[in-house]
Amino acid sequence: MIDMFLQDILPNVLKILLIVVPLMLSVAYLTYAERKVIGYIQVRIGPNRVGLWGLLQPIADALKLLLKEVIFPAKSNLYLFLVAPVLAIGPALAAWAVMPFDDGMVLANIDAGLLYILAITSMSVYGVVIAGWASNSRYAFLGALRSAAQVVSYEIAMGFALVGVLIAAGSLNLGEIVLAQQGGFWHWYFIPLFPLFIVYFISGVAETNRAPFDIAEGESEIVAGFHVEYSGMAFAIFFLAEYADMILISMLAATLFMGGWLSPFDGIPVLESFFSWVPGLVWLLGKTAIFLFLYLWFRATFPRYRYDQIMRLGWKVFIPVTLVWLVIVSTAQVFDIGPWFTESAVITAGGG
Amino acid sequence: MLENYLPILLFIIIGIGFGVLPLLAGFVLGPRHPDSEKRSAYECGFEPFEDAHMKFDVRYYLVAILFIIFDLEIAFLFPWAIVLDEIGVFGLLAMFLFLGILVVGFIYEWKKGALEWE
Question: Which domain of life is it from (chain A) (predicted)?
């Protein structure tokens, strides 16, 4: 029993903490970056009082939330009220188990990686629905309904977009999907699967209930939506889950469409050797940061969608677009058409 | 192969821990002064005069049903996409037939107005 603990469980727990602790720090500093970036976009300075350039602001926020009272609404269903935040953060963190950070640098190298991520991120909608139901507050209830319908709608578009990646890569293993994009940035899937890439990222923004799709917590209509009755640490957990999901969506976009840890200079004569010392993790984090910046940029730029516009975009634009592109991609893959869909055939012929 | 799933199990447990521990810390460190006004549901200062578990629009239900159909479709597409190179033209046509039936249903629900939100 102790042997098993030392050999199997302890190293894995340490590795998990090696993922989760930096992730939590990233979440904290993503909130800081959000306030700074939106501040500068609106010609303000943003937080600058706590520590140098306001760098200790996220720490101060966390401490403040920790010391606030957790209020239980009198009419709420206490058990579900407490389960909801746990259901929100659990899947948001557990999805990171299969994320490849560099060649071979992955906690659980399973062949069903992408399926696992799709399955476990679907769980997070339960957190929202249960929070809205258990609060027994009108705003929370409306916010949960809206959020649930929106999230499941965009999950379809997102699923179809992922099928396109699977056709091109021929594997569900995230590491193999990245390796299938080797050979220079023109092999990355954002070029041949461009419409799916756009649909994927916009659906990702909608999935995480971020602006301009943040109708679930539209301040001007339903105050804060599903977490209006949550305070203190219970609120902080929802907050952590939302930002962890944002980082997850961004890193998945980088992995599936932008070559993951691969260098953007691969295959370019001089630059390739010039940048070959840079570890893959740096490229992956850089690409992720670009997508996270897009999230913040969207929030500062676009006005909030109306609910019928959100549903129309999801059902009447994205689903037809992805269906048509799936037909094109699968046909190209089977008949080896075009510059992108011939490689796997060559590899099969050479290997077999 | 199966031992690769152990870290996932551990990760799920740790993820739940990251939900439970801050909640406990919030209980221990935060003040506890509940009163009836503080514990009432927030409705911009109005007294909540009935249960908030009210009737809601049937279209939310419709979206949920449509979601099940399309999500099942995606579940069928996943294995098909992986082995597409091996099953070739026959697999392609079979899935086109399947997608065609789905598209007919999709057009029907579109024309029926199931996707309208006024």
Answer: Bacteria
Collapsing DSSP states into helix, strand and coil, what is residue A272? Answer: helix
Would you call A232 and B42 a contact, using CB atoms and an 8 Å cutoff?
no
The ranges of chain B with pLDDT < 70 are 1, 44-50, 52
Centre a 10 Å sphere on the Cβ of residue A156 and count the other Cβ atoms it contains: 22
Which residues in chain A are closer than 8 Å to B92, comparing Cβ atoms? 330-331, 334
Give me the CATH number covering residue B12.
1.20.58.1610
Amino acid residing at A155: E
In chain B, how many domains are there?
1
Would you tell me which residues 4-23 of chain B have a C-beta closer than 8 angstroms to some C-beta of chain A? 4-8, 10-12, 14-16, 18-20, 22-23
| Chain B: closest CA distance from residue A27 (Å) | 14
Same domain for A179 and A104: yes
User: Which chain B residues contact residue A134 at CB under 8 A?
Assistant: none
Q: Domain range spanning residue B69?
A: 4-112
- B118 within domain boundaries: no
Residues of chain A with pLDDT under 70: 1, 218-222, 338-352
A10: burial class by Cβ within 10 Å (0-12, 13-18, 19+)? exposed
pLDDT value for A26? 92
Which of these, A103, A15, A175, lies nearest to B8 by C-alpha position? A15
Look at residue A343 in the predicted model and tell me its pLDDT: 54
What 8-state DSSP symbol labels residue A316? I
> Looking at residue A215, what is its pLDDT?
76
| Pair (A132, A201) in one structural domain | yes
Quick one: A48 and A96 in the same domain?
no
Find the CB nearest B32 among A69, A133, A344.
Answer: A69
Number of domains observed in the structure of chain A = 2
Is the CB of B8 less than 8 angstroms away from the CB of A94? yes
Calpha distance A232→A36 (Å, rounded): 23
Q: State residue A291's pLDDT score.
A: 93
Q: Same domain for A143 and A35?
A: no
Cross-strand partners of A102: A105
What pLDDT is attached to residue A348? 42
Asked if the C-beta of B116 comes within 8 angstroms of chain A's C-beta atoms, the answer is: yes
